[in-house]
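Course assignment 3, question 2. Fill in each field.
Student: A.L.
Task: Predict the tertiary structure for the chain below.
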Amino acid sequence: MDKLTRHIQISKEIIRGIYEDSISQDNKDEYILVMDEQSSNFLLVMNTWQDSTRFYGNLIHIEVKHDGLICVHEDSTDLVVVDYFLEKGVKKKICSLAGTHLM
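Answer field:
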């Protein structure tokens, strides 16, 4: 498996796992999983209400560039999504939330 395909697969596994964990919790928050394989963009979006206030936005946005570079554009969680990639053995080709290289 080439690096691009591997990084796309790992990105999908990570975001799908976080999504499944989020929806399995007993709460009334709605989560939307967006997986655009053509552009290699993977998003977890939250859509919820608290009293009369709506909370909507990207919790996580991962993009895999054509050269295999993994960009975590957004991580509005306490999970540190980049750590999931490191745990999966991705040691290089990760950029941080601000777009600077971590490795």
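Instructor remarks: The CA atoms of residues 80 and 97 lie 10 Å apart. Helices lie at 3-24, 81-87.
Grade: pending
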